Amino acid sequence: MSLVGVFILYPIAQAIYSSFFDKDLLSPAEAEFVGLANYAEIWTSETIHQVLWNTFVWVAVGSIAAIVLGFLMGWLLYEKLPFTSVASAIVLIPWVLPRVVGASIWQFMFGGSQGIINELLVQLGVIDEYIVMLGSTDLSLWPPIVGMIWRLAPLFALLTLTSLQGIDEHLYEAARMDGATPWEQFRYITLPMMRYNLAIGFLLMLIYNIRNFSMVWVMTKGGPGVSSSTLPVMIYRTAFVDFNVGLASALSMLLFVVLLVFSYYYIQVYDKVQGEF
């Protein structure tokens, strides 16, 4: 219990305490109590509102796209097509690669005139000239989202594969004997049998995405401006670039509450699954 207090409760308490102060990282002794001013800034700052919107887009688009793509990949692996075992190993590569390595690969691919993405789009006639996507205020958030989908889809593919393998084949045989169509089998057998695993995977995806730092930081460092900044990146920049520990602590509390809510629902779903087996 003492270890829990030292390594978990004390840092949380310290962050809560710091969030009520105007505190400079380089001059912590000169901290000034400001009450709820840091939280009021979160409420009123247009810059922070932009970051929160970026975070929402990052989590929503990245998670949903990774789930859809991962589900399709898992289904194809389950169909036992040729070279399925080799494909399963290849699918794992994005997940097992170190996060910084994966982010660096995508940073290079989305580079200006040297990036393969630009070259491919020009060759296909989608664009007429190279676009500096990572340096564009309108586009800079999307390359990290693509990189995150690439990283997370394999995780959901494996979850889908193991869930499909756990469904009793006799259920499908009985359904086919009763004249059920493939869609009806999918709707009334596959989805209900997978619902809890899919829910757990979805919540895990949200938790992972909302706290992810490396993909955005390596590819864009949250720029230009805050056009690609998410909440974890904003916290880091506020604390270690702007040295504003008080505001960074308040932002950390916001992130902590959101993660606490998602974690609560994850535990609820997990306990329900455990209760059924």
TrEMBL record:
Subcellular locations according to the entry: Cell membrane
User: For this UniProt entry, what's an example GO CC term?
Assistant: plasma membrane
Q: Which GO terms describe its biological process?
A: transmembrane transport
The ABC transmembrane type-1 domain covers 52-266
Task: List residues traversing the bilayer.
Answer: 56-78, 90-110, 148-167, 196-219, 239-267
UniProt membrane topology term: Multi-pass membrane protein
InterPro entries for this protein: MetI-like, MetI-like_sf
Q: What is this protein called?
A: Sugar ABC transporter permease
Organism the protein comes from: Haloarcula salina
Q: What is the lineage of its organism?
A: Archaea, Methanobacteriati, Methanobacteriota, Stenosarchaea group, Halobacteria
